[in-house]
UniProtKB/TrEMBL annotation:
Chain residue ranges for the region called Disordered: 1-55
SMART domains referenced in this protein's UniProt entry, alphabetically: ARM, KISc
Keyword ATP-binding recorded: yes
Species in which this protein is naturally found: Panicum virgatum
A GO term for molecular function: plus-end-directed microtubule motor activity
Family, similarity comment: Belongs to the TRAFAC class myosin-kinesin ATPase superfamily. Kinesin family. Ungrouped subfamily.
A Pfam family recorded for this sequence: Kinesin
Lineage, highest ranks first: Eukaryota, Viridiplantae, Streptophyta, Embryophyta, Tracheophyta
ARM repeat copies, ranges: 695-737, 736-779
Coiled-coil annotated residue ranges, if any: 408-449, 479-555, 588-636
Entry protein name: Kinesin-like protein
GO annotations of cellular component type: mitotic spindle; spindle microtubule
Transmembrane segments: none
């Protein structure tokens, strides 16, 4: 913003610790006011970006010129304007007369047209922002009565927001910037009148003392109400109360102006957390508090509407009003003195001289960011007041403050947090203790168990050790005996050696005697030889004994080694024995449970076995009976086979026509052509009749149920042939032959059987009373079965006629369509299938010339339903509908109805799109063969 440019950037300069002098004014970087250290843990922090030293911040001063009022205008040109503003250079020229003119530079110069908004933004907004950041701040209006101090600072502008003064705007700004969850804002509204502090929110409270904290030097006013603000409405309400209570003495100059100083104190408390690494908390404090220590930034904003700065004599006051003016002036004079002292860097600042200077102690030369708006009137009548006001502003510009941030530990939040943590730790500790107790109990149990097993182990190992000791003793005694034997052997050896020596001596003597007695020489020689032999034997025995003794020694050492090994293996065996014991107990348990379950199973199996045994017995009896029965049947079959073999040979030549020809309704041409065959047939029939009489019809019919396919086929053929004879037809039905044939048709999978059985049924159907019986036996289902399994036109005609009649008579078609309402996919699929079958039968009957006229389906509305729903349902349903439709299209009598129901389109679609070849072909055939359709298509 161009207008605010001169002031706002100054802030950033201040933050870097390079205060900038305005209008040639000298500034100082060190605050003249002595600072007291802050007690821990509350701490003061210098403004950021300042390399650790407090931020010097000069008092900012703006001048605001009030527009001419009626009084000024009334004096007219006699008292012309004594001020001239040069906003572009932020200068003001004060003209004493035509010759003397002085120029002053301010931080901002507001002309009479300046808006309240701009004044707020330039003068107060930077201070409010600073307060929001945690610094103290002061905004103050100074000037002669009637020049617009109250207008600038205290105007409420409740209805017209553009009129709002600094107090309202500052509170508005704070309310919109803070968080109601963590921050709090409260106000006190006071007036200082006749050196007495009065609470404007509670006027009963007067003479409120000003207290200075001995440690921090902080000023407070205990007793003054501090009301927490919630919203702007509340602000208006409180300020209105304050305004109403403000004592305003009328002066000659302006009846609206006041002689009291009005002071609005905004207390702001915002939460903050230490997270920066270069936090200024001491190491000690860090040891006590966690890193994210809850802190509160407490800051205060003072907005002061000072009393008029004019000299007392001019106010025209009288009596006690003079006293009053003195007091008013005492505070103002004192403020002037302090500012002079500060501006001149004087060592003594007389802040204690008045209550105003005590309250504003922090605003001038203190730690607050301070802005001053100096209001002046234009009229030269008040030249001297205007001049002294301007000089006050000039001096104030020289005052430098050292702004500091004040943070305090939020003990309440911290306490709650710590308390929560302690609770959590306590419960965790209790949980751990419980766990430990449980663990200890388990360990004790285990210990007891191991002690028991250890005791057992010791017992068994003791027994083993005793055994081994005994073994050892035995071995030792064996060794001793061996040693003794050895000793004895040695003694004998010695004895033998002595004997040898003696013998040698004797030999020598003998030799001497030899010389003497040659005759005895021979004897001697012999004796000598014998002795030598004996000696040799003795020597050999000695060597033997020696070898024996060394082997005994070896054995002893081996035994000793074995003893050692046995001792170590004893230990090993002990541990193994322990493990084996464990395994044995486990295996025993498992074995016992298995044995138990096996026992149960065995008892179950025994009972089952008994039941099966019973069943087996009865089955065996049955089988016996069956075998006997079968034996009889087989005998009959043999006979039958033997007699039918001739017939079969003939039949293979005449094929199926032979059977049919007997009915008199078959192929007439064939009949006329084969007179020979007829003869042959009558011959065969004679044979068959013979068999029939011989075997008996019940037995032939029983063979229809034979398990041997060959027998079945032969039996069916016999029955078919019998059925061709009028005289047999009723009897076969009476004897249950029709039932047997129908069930064969249903159950058999063999095509020959199907073909011959269908023929047999058709033969039986020749008889009028049989037709009724056939219908009663199985109704439509069996008819449909016959139809699907035979190609014989006669049978098909019969079936089709019966089916048609049945369906029509019973209202079946309508009922079928009615069931569509169920909407169930499977039901609809069945209906479609039924309709398709019906249409197919109908189409066959009509094509064979057995029936004429339009389809029964059309009469009952099926055609319309098919056209409307051809593709609405599942694939299989669609397929059936398409087929039914194609069959209907084959009948020329249906042409008009198909065209009328819009079926041509459907026919075309089927001929092109149907996935079924037969449907497509049928549709194409219908379209190509029917000229009416061809016309429609074109
Ligand atoms: P002080 O509080 O200094 O005695 P006031 O604020 O009461 O003066 O102003 C005196 C009169 O002048 C009031 O009627 C006020 O509305 C009017 N006034 C003051 N300054 C302006 C201004 N800038 N624009 C319009 N009117 C003003
Ligand atoms: Mg006023």
């Amino acid at each position: 913003m161009a207008t605010g440019g001169g002031w706002a950037p100054a802030r950033s300069v201040e933050r870097h610790g390079a205060p900038r002098g305005g209008g040639g004014t000298r500034s100082k970087s060190v605050a003249p006011c002595p600072r007291r250290p802050s007690p821990s843990p509350a701490r003061s922090r210098p403004a950021p970006d300042n390399g650790g030293s407090a931020d010097s911040c000069r008092v900012r001063v703006a001048i605001r010129l009030r527009p001419k009022n009626s009084e000024d205008l009334a004096y007219g040109s006699d008292f012309d304007s004594c001020v001239e503003l040069q906003p572009e250079s932020k200068r003001l020229k004060l003209k004493k007369n035509n010759w003397i003119c002085e120029s002053y530079k301010f931080d901002e110069v507001f002309s009479e047209n300046a808006s309240q908004k701009r004044v707020y933004e330039v003068v107060a907004k930077p201070v409010v922002e600073s307060v929001l950041e945690g610094y103290n701040g002061t905004v103050m209006a100074y000037g002669q009565t009637g020049t617009g101090k109250t207008y600038t600072v205290g105007r409420l502008g409740k209805d017209d927001p553009s009129e709002r003064g600094i107090m309202v705007r500052a509170l508005e700004h704070i309310l919109s910037s803070m968080s109601f969850e963590t921050d709090r804002v409260a106000i006190s509204y006071l007036q200082l009148y006749l050196e007495s502090v009065q609470d404007l929110l509670d006027p009963e409270k007067t003479n409120i003392p000003i207290v200075e904290d001995a440690k921090t030097g902080e000023i407070s006013l205990p007793g003054a109400s501090i009301v927490e603000i919630k919203d702007l409405e509340h602000v208006f309400h409180l300020l209105q109360i304050g305004e109403a209570n403000r004592h305003a003495a009328n002066t000659k100059m302006n009846t609206e102006s006041s002689r009291s100083h009005a002071i609005l104190i905004i207390h702001l408390q915002r939460s903050s957390r230490i997270k920066e690494e270069n936090s200024s908390l001491s190491n000690d404090t860090h040891d006590i508090f966690p890193d994210d220590l809850p802190l509160v930034l407490k800051s205060k904003l003072l907005i002061v509407d000072l009393a008029g700065s004019e000299r007392i004599d001019k106010s025209g006051s009288e009596g006690h009003m003079i006293e009053e003016a003195k007091f008013i002036n005492l505070s103002l004079t004192s403020l002037g003195k302090c500012i002079n002292a500060l501006a001149e860097n004087s060592p003594h600042i007389p802040t204690r001289d008045s209550k105003l200077t005590r309250i504003l102690r922090d605003s001038f030369g203190g730690t607050a960011r301070t802005s001053l708006v100096v209001t002046i009137g234009p009229s030269s009548r008040h030249y001297s007041e205007t001049s002294s006001t301007i000089m006050f502003g000039q001096r104030a510009m020289k005052v430098v403050n050292t702004i500091k941030l004040k943070e305090e530990v939020d003990y309440e939040t911290l306490y709650k947090k710590v308390e929560r943590e302690v609770d959590q730790l306590t419960s965790e500790m209790e949980r751990q203790q419980k766990l430990m107790k449980n663990e200890k109990m388990q360990l004790d149990k285990k210990l007891k168990e191991s002690e028991g097993s250890f005791h057992d182990l010791r017992m068994t190992s003791n027994i083993r050790i005793e055994n081994l000791e005994k073994e050892k003793c035995q071995l030792e005694s064996a060794v001793k005996t061996l040693m003794r034997d050895l000793e004895e052997e040695r003694g004998q050896n010695n004895l033998l050696s002595e004997q040898i020596a003696e013998l040698e001596k004797l030999v020598n003597e003998n030799k001497q005697q030899q010389l003497e007695n040659l005759s005895r020489m021979k004897i001697f020689t012999d004796t000598t030889k014998e002795h030598e032999k004996e000696m040799e034997e003795l020597l050999r025995q000695l060597q033997e004994e020696r070898r024996c003794s060394s082997s005994l020694k070896d054995r002893m050492s081996v035994l000793q080694q074995e003893l050692c090994d046995a001792q170590s293996s004893t230990q090993l065996q002990e541990s193994m024995a322990h493990e084996l014991e464990k395994k044995l107990t486990k295996v025993t348990e498992e074995f016992t449970s298995q044995v138990q379950s096996l026992k149960e199973k065995i008892s179950e199996l025994i009972s089952e076995k008994e039941v099966i045994y019973e069943e087996l017995k009865s089955t065996q009896e049955k089988v016996q009976q069956e075998m006997l029965h079968r034996q009889g049947l087989e005998d009959q079959i043999l006979r039958l086979k033997w007699s039918t073999s001739d017939i079969c040979a003939e039949e293979s030549k005449t094929s199926y026509g032979m059977v049919r020809s007997g009915s008199g309704l078959g192929n007439a041409a064939f009949v006329s052509k084969s007179g020979k065959i007829r003869e042959a047939l009558s011959g065969q029939r004679g044979t068959i009749s013979k068999i029939f009489e011989e075997v008996g019809l019940p037995n032939v019919l029983a063979l229809l149920k034979s398990e041997d396919l060959d027998v079945q086929i032969h039996a069916v053929k016999v029955v078919a042939n019998l059925a061709a004879e009028d005289i047999n037809q009723e009897r076969i039905v009476e004897e249950g032959g029709l039932d047997a044939l129908l069930s064969l048709l249903e159950t058999s999978e063999n095509t020959t059987i199907h073909r011959v059985t269908a023929g047999a049924v058709a033969n039986l159907a020749m008889n009028g009373s049989n037709q009724g019986v056939i219908m009663n036996k199985g109704g439509a289902r069996l008819l449909a079965n016959v139809a699907s399994k035979t190609e014989d036109p006669q049978t098909l005609r019969l079936v089709a006629e019966k089916l048609h009649l049945m369906l029509k008579r019973d209202g079946g078609i309508k009922a079928l369509l009615g069931m569509v309402r169920s909407g169930h996919a499977e039901v609809i699929a069945q209906i479609a299938r039924g309709i398709a079958n019906f249409a197919k039968c109908e189409s066959r009957v009509i094509s064979q010339g057995h029936r004429k006229g339009r389809s029964l389906l059309i009469e009952d509305g099926v055609l319309t339903w098919m056209v409307a729903n051809s593709t609405r349902f599942s694939h299989s349903t669609t397929r059936h509908i398409e087929l039914a439709f194609c069959h209907l299209a084959q009948n020329e009598d249906n042409t008009c109805d198909i065209i009328a129901s819009g079926g041509i389109k459907e026919l075309l679609r089927i001929s092109r799109e149907s996935p079924r070849d037969d449907a497509r072909n049928l549709a194409k055939m219908a379209l190509d063969s029917n000229p009416a359709f061809l016309r429609e298509v074109q």
